[in-house]
UniProtKB/TrEMBL annotation:
Residues 3-161 form the CobQ/CobB/MinD/ParA nucleotide binding domain. It comes from the Bacteria. The lineage of its organism: Bacteria, Pseudomonadati, Pseudomonadota, Gammaproteobacteria, Lysobacterales. This is ParA family protein. CDD domains: ParAB_family (cd02042). Pfam families: CbiA (PF01656).
Amino acid sequence: MRLVITGFKGGIGRTSTTLNLAARIAERRSVLVNDQDPQCGALAWAALSDQTPFAVARASSPGLFDVEIVDMPPSMPIKEQMPDADLYLVVTTLDAASYTVFLRTVALLTEQGKPYLVVANRYRPARGEQKRRLAEEPLLAQAIVIRDRAILSSYYERGTTIFALEGKRAQAAQAEFIALSNAIESMLKALKRAAQRQAKKASSLRKQRVSRHTQKKLTPSGRQA
Ligand SMILES: Nc1ncnc2c1ncn2[C@@H]1O[C@H](COP(=O)(O)OP(=O)(O)OP(=O)(O)O)[C@@H](O)[C@H]1O
Ligand SMILES: [Mg+2]
């Protein structure tokens, strides 16, 4: 499975989402974080760490890991070419400037028919603008919300993730990443079911065409002409 963490704006939380989600998934499966950002936020974090619960590299390793999570740079890819993925996570914060760029990211994915899940990061309910946007914007209706939390800033310099930390604050942050990981799983299952339905439909259409074609070649008595 390949997940691409995107959002064309800087500083919205792609790397935080990548690392903490990777830690959650790594509890059960082998994970590679593929750091495609030239600023190397994930690789720099790994250098601060004694032991990471998942691999971090600047490349893919097809077949070696159960899950690959690609941390993308804060820009539109060259020639608007998004890397392949089973699912794209579009991270945004809820201020107007970030949200405008979020809309561009979503527009490109939609244009290219790529499935995505929205992560509304650094949510502060006390900020009226954020609360209103989250409640009213249809594109945020299914978003997974990660609140603005000190622990989601301090984990980085410790070279750890929130899943290695203890206490109520860590648990509250972990719950949000568990919800994110569950939502990813549900969406991937739904996509798989939809693909199977489509394949079945295509196969039955093919069979119908073949049977019509064969019938045309048959005489009314059913014998070959
Ligand atoms: N939910 C959160 N609560 C508090 N701080 C956060 C949260 N998410 C991210 N941050 C902090 O915001 C800053 C930017 O986050 P991060 O580096 O993950 O974003 P990015 O989109 O990868 O940025 P860049 O464009 O530099 O790659 C970091 O200092 C990070 O610790
Ligand atoms: Mg980053």
